Amino acid sequence: MQGAKSINSDLVDYDYLIAGGGPAGSSLALRLNESGFKVIIIEKQKFPREKLCGEFVTPECLQYLEDLDVLDEIKKAGAVRIEETCFYSPKGRKLTIPSKWFGASPALGISRSLLDQILLNKAKSGGIEVLENARLVGLAREDRKIKSAIVKFSTGEKIEIAARNFIDATGRSRAVARYLASKTCKKNTSAARWVAFKNHLSNTRCEANTCEIYFFNGGYAGLSHIENGMANLCLIIDSKRLNPALGPVTAIRALMKENSRAKFTLGESAACKEWIGSGVYSYGQPDTRLSAENVAFIGDAASFADPFTGSGLLFALETSDSLARFVRENKTTAIENFSITTGEITKIRSRICCLLRHFAFDAKRAEAAIFIAGISKRLCRSLASATRKSGKSRYDKIYSR
Questions:
Q1: Which residues pair with 160 in a beta bridge?
Q2: SS3 for 72?
Q3: CA 372 to CA 379: how far, in whole Å?
Q4: Fewest beta carbons less than 10 Å away: which of 24, 49, 291, 304?
Q5: What are the pLDDT digits (tens) for 134-177?
Q6: What pairing do the DSSP bridges indicate for beta strands 194-202 and 276-280?
Q7: Tell me, what DSSP letter sits at residue 166?
């Protein structure tokens, strides 16, 4: 703790310290603030910032955003209605999933930089303290509880923040979990099994109000319209399929040509920004064992689902809402129990996604799966529901025990 200034070291003033200012962290902060809890958010970057994401807001998300009083602002900011998702096999076979299967309203396409900014601004305007450019670099523990977090700003200054409870909303990086797992936190230096990329494109031929998913051997890509006439392209590739000699941009273009629909849709497109990329090491609920009574995990930090299911943002909003209710109903003595119970629910989704992943990353299997799903609408709808259902009634049932 040497060299770190203290905040509230004598009197713990914050009820909750939330690491991560994305949709999971911001929405949780808003809900806890409404219940009278004092909350602080620490976010390692300065918003607005780009985020690797499919930028697809499923119909189930809209009620959560409405409850947070940000839906109208999101629509006014230019979010695009998405009426259907079309899956394309490498040879061009098409499977259409209507957005109305999942809610009365259509899905929305909006950049994460804009969506996240709207949510974080809402938190700030509600009086919630937000520290940006503030990275978690350590935890102080006592018995089975975290006592404080060490935060380092981009300026190099360090501070110590004490709180009663700590929430990991840092996505796949799971910053809090990594410092719980060991006293000396080390980054994963092994090669990632998959690599994800994202960029905003202009001049695509993507159908209006449609999200298009393209399968190719070793990966898949998603394309959908967002604000300002742009389209977001996000893809995940088996790292073995990337040729280091070509460079990522050339490799991505070559892979997209393996899918006939993607080749047509992206044929005359142009990148609006620099490509961003990230390694993907695992899916599902992480194996890290935790040992703190006053910590909980939400969003991707709790469980990372395959992006082609469109359930990432839904899970972020879902778990933040559920944790807020869990806190209110149980007068929380150990929010660790929330994360344990979350695992019971994510197991089902993870198993379905794991099954579908075998088809998503294999061109021949993808071709066969789209053909079979196209024959049986009932099977198609059941599988789609299994990966993206809100599970709200199940949360209520489990967390009220």
A1: 6, 150
A2: helix
A3: 9
A4: 291
A5: 999 999 998 889 999 999 999 999 999 999 999 999 998 889 98
A6: antiparallel
A7: E
